[in-house]
Write a structure and sequence with these properties.
The complex is a heterotrimer of chains A (about 210), B (about 160) and C (about 475). Chain A is an all-alpha fold and about 210 residues long. Chain A is built from seven helices and no strands. Classes of the chains: A mainly alpha (about 210), B mainly alpha (about 160), C mainly alpha (about 475). At the A-B interface, helix 1, helix 3, helix 5 and helix 6 of A face helix 3 and helix 4 of B.
């Protein structure tokens, strides 16, 4: 399929370039934008692999939601924070290099042993995807796994409650009395209370 | 196979072309007579108090981002469901309605608990019996917000 | 047109009661954020009673799976659900008292408690690894938030640690599910058991999957070396939350482990037993040794719960029904003792700024004889000293391990018990023999004392006449597939 090849050779270098760009640039917002482009190129790869559902997930969830969250975190911490001087944890870089080499080696072996460096499709993919991947997925997800699917909604509810309870701690939900009684705690929670202030007794000893 | 996605590609190309064309065309035809007031952001004549660099969001906006993710994940389930809608039949419809209904409970909770309120602050009296019935003066609320933000910035700077 | 699956909702009625109760409590806390919490607490207890009743109703049902093989209906799930509802009731009451005392209104507590319990009740019935994962996630997310509920620095930090490490453990769990699927082309517990039996030779993929699942689940029950979070979280979390999660999480996750290890990977039991023995021995030794060094009662109890997890796991080397029954008995006696112990600690520590250092317990026998007596009973049971349930539980668990031929493990367990007796008895000695110092900040209200007498009586009764529940547990230990 020549069209597939054309698309691949357009997007694969772009994918690698944006991934490198993300690591190299200093500005956190620029890095995030490189990551968005990278997510899009990966989505195209999924499309080439006959996985339209993953394509949609990649764009809607990753390029959409996860990236928004990343940008929020960057803005939350401040754009111009810059790098911390030196390594906080000893040996991080060395460990990272070793692990990176290990994962490259592992992937190479797995690909070599598995499908080989050829372009043949993995066997049985079409057999388990009658009518295309999304509809086969729909049959499994909404019929066989309908119960876990419904439980997912409970998980989403608990996640929403978690976000609300943890992030909106200083909201209307505090009564006047609580504000008076626990105002110090809030400062304390942000690490702003004077050391040795009352209330630090019984904290986890480190 | 990939040709099925041609309309999407066409759409994307059109979108980019429209954006670029708008900029180019307006650059070509607009008069170009700048003065300092026009160049200032928002053209209000005021210099912005703080530069956008280094400014930090309040954590309360994070809730919005979190909620966006949660409902985004709900949306992604709709995609295979819509593809297979006819074959899934009534069961599929009820199933999805139930799912959306459950996530909607989360939405109602967030809404009622004030997660979608833009400006909430510690100063706002929360108890119904403590709060005055009259709506608060919007300017005063804005001032409070500003004071709180400046206090936050001071505290952050002091650290 | 595909045929609609059968929706046997009755099979998960306890879970529905808990989740439904959680939804109602959540909406109510959204609409009435400033409302008094007494109605919430009463509603939670009612939901727990309904869940327990519906679990009992399932006792005489035929053992099978429902909802397309996603959940199992059997007596193991019933017994575990009943235990969970009991623990949940104490958690709800202790939480009510804790927050009411400081007028700290956080009505989401009850919704989160019910959601966590719903996840746990689902976990003990889960017959599919996907459901196991989802249930673990639901209960974990709820527990992370409950840990941080008072927003003080300690709890917030504890919740952060718990969340980060918990997310890491979830990845292991999910990876284990993927590996198991790779090995058997199914995620169902039954299907795995069928696919793995009768296949000759070692099955590396299935073994890797099983071990990754053990890592993911072992984190939740704080087995060494996945216990790092336990002391900080148990100490940092509000005491009622600690009481609830230390007991309920262990019950739910260990029962899930029974299904995963004894059923799904039952044919690999011979290969998995050494790994389980190592984890168990490590937890018993390290938990007991580190507990000795602690100067804070909550932290000491946290390390002791690491050791207790090791004791429970030692019964898993025996896949026989005695092993399962022993684990269930241990879980029940441990839950009663640990809920009670953290409940007493909550009353002694005085308010939301908990003070749980040893100095708080010095001479408590003079000032608060009732609380000191209650705590002594719980600690004796945790130490495994007769005539408490903890003793019987240890005998049963070690019996199961011995019959499977793992006597070195039993020897390590016995030594760890001796070390354990030292630090438990030290607290009792501190309360009974020393002079009190400083001001008394213990909670004077009588009702919590009365409530905490219930687990104390349970511990003693089960210690004297274990026969009242052992036959039931042995019936629950029969897993037919």
């Amino acid at each position: 399929m020549p069209l597939d090849n054309v698309v691949f050779w357009v997007f694969a270098p772009l994918s690698v370039a944006t991934a490198i760009g993300m690591i190299v640039v200093r500005n956190a917002v620029h890095a995030a934008l490189f990551l968005v482009v990278n997510f899009f190129t990966i989505a195209v790869m999924y499309l080439l692999l006959d996985a339209p559902f993953l394509f949609a997930v990649q764009i809607v969830v990753y390029a959409g939601a996860i990236m928004v969250l990343f940008l929020f975190v960057i803005m939350l911490l401040g754009v111009d924070r810059g790098d911390a001087p030196g390594e906080r944890l000893l040996g991080q870089r060395t460990t990272a290099v070793i692990l990176a080499v290990a994962i490259v080696a592992e992937l190479a072996t797995a690909i070599r042993a598995g499908i080989g460096f050829t372009t043949r499709a993995p066997g049985g993919f079409d057999a388990v995807n009658p009518g295309g991947n999304p509809s086969a997925l729909a049959d499994v997800l909404f019929r066989d796994y309908f119960f876990p699917f419904e439980v997912t909604s409970i998980l989403l509810i608990v996640a929403a409650v978690a976000a609300m309870v943890l992030a909106l701690r200083r909201s209307k939900s505090l009564s006047q009395r609580e504000i008076e009684t626990h105002a110090g705690d809030d400062l304390e929670a942000y690490g702003l209370a004077a050391p040795g202030a009352p209330g630090t007794v019984g904290e986890p000893s480190r | 196979m990939l040709t099925e996605y041609l309309p999407i590609v066409a759409m994307a190309v059109l979108a980019v072309a429209f954006g670029v064309a708008s900029l180019v065309v307006s650059r070509m035809f607009r008069p170009h007579r700048p003065n300092p007031v026009k160049l200032s952001p928002y053209e209000c004549g005021n210099d912005p108090v703080r530069l956008p660099r280094g400014e930090r969001f309040s954590v309360k906006f994070y809730v919005v981002a979190m909620l966006f993710i949660i409902f985004d994940i709900e949306i992604i389930f709709l995609f295979p469901w819509a593809v297979r809608f006819r074959q899934l039949g009534l069961f599929g419809l009820v199933e999805m309605a139930f799912f959306i209904g459950l996530v909607f409970v989360a939405y109602i909770y967030v809404w009622r608990a004030g997660g979608l309120d833009w400006a909430t602050s510690v100063e706002a009296p929360a108890d119904a019996d403590l709060a005055s019935d009259s709506p608060r003066d919007p300017m005063a609320a804005a001032d409070e917000e500003l004071a709180a933000a400046m206090h936050d910035a001071e505290v952050a700077g002091a650290r | 047109m595909i045929d609609a699956p059968r929706v046997e909702l009755w099979a998960i009625l306890p879970v529905l009661m808990l989740f439904g109760g959680g939804l109602i409590a959540l909406l109510a806390s959204g609409f009435a954020r400033r409302a008094a919490q007494a109605p919430f607490a009463l509603f939670t207890l009612a939901a727990l009673a309904a869940a327990a009743a519906s679990a009992l109703w399932l006792w005489n049902r035929e053992t099978t799976t429902a909802l397309e093989g996603m959940v199992s209906i059997d007596r193991l799930a019933v017994v575990a659900t009943l235990a969970l509802c009991g623990i949940g009731a104490f958690g709800a009451y202790l939480g009510f008292h804790y927050f009411e005392r400081d007028d700290f209104r956080r009505n989401e507590f009850y919704a989160l408690l019910l959601f966590a319990l719903g996840g746990m009740a689902l976990l003990v019935a889960a017959a599919d690894l996907i459901v196991v994962f989802l249930a673990v996630e639901v209960l974990s997310l709820a527990l992370y938030v409950m840990t941080a509920l008072t927003f003080r620095r300690g709890p917030t930090e504890a919740a952060m640690k718990y969340f980060l490490l918990g997310a890491f453990a979830s990845a292991f769990l999910l990876y284990g599910v993927a590996m198991s699927y790779g090995a058997s082309a199914t995620t169902s517990v039954q299907g795995l058991a069928r696919a793995l039996t009768g296949v000759g030779g070692s099955q590396p993929l299935a073994l890797v999957g099983a071990l990754l699942l053990v890592v993911g689940l072992g984190f939740k029950v704080s087995l060494v070396p996945f216990h790092m979070w336990t002391p900080d979280v148990y100490q940092g979390a509000p005491s009622p939350v600690t009481a609830f999660m230390s007991a309920a999480t262990k019950v739910a996750v260990f029962v899930a482990m029974v299904r995963v290890l004894d059923v799904a990977f039952g044919s690999l039991a011979w290969d998995l037993a050494p790994a389980i023995a190592v984890l168990s021995a490590g937890s018993m030794i390290l938990g007991s040794v580190l507990a000795i060094a602690q100067r804070d009662v909550k932290r000491m109890l946290a390390y002791s719960s690491v050791a207790q997890a090791g004791f429970i796991l030692s019964s898993f080397v025996s896949p026989e029904r005695e092993g399962i029954a022993a684990a269930l008995f241990y879980l029940i006696s441990y839950s009663a003792a640990v809920v009670g112990a953290f409940g007493v600690v909550m009353l002694i520590s005085g308010g939301i700024r908990e003070q749980t250092g040893f100095e708080r317990f010095r001479g408590l026998g003079r000032r608060q004889p009732v609380l000191a007596a209650l705590l002594s009973v719980f600690l004796l049971s945790l130490a495994g000293i007769p005539p408490t349930a903890g003793f019987v539980a240890k005998v049963l668990v070690f019996g199961a391990a011995t019959s499977a031929g793992y006597w070195p493990l039993v020897l390590i367990g016995a030594l760890a018990s001796v070390a354990g007796a030292f630090f438990y008895l030290r607290v009792i000695a501190l309360m009974a023999m020393q002079e009190p110092r400083g001001v008394d900040i213990a909670d004077p209200s009588p009702l919590p004392r009365l409530v905490l007498a219930v687990p104390a009586v349970t511990v003693v009764v089960l210690g004297i006449v274990p026969g009242v529940i052992v036959p039931l547990l042995q019936e629950a230990g029969v897993l037919t597939w």
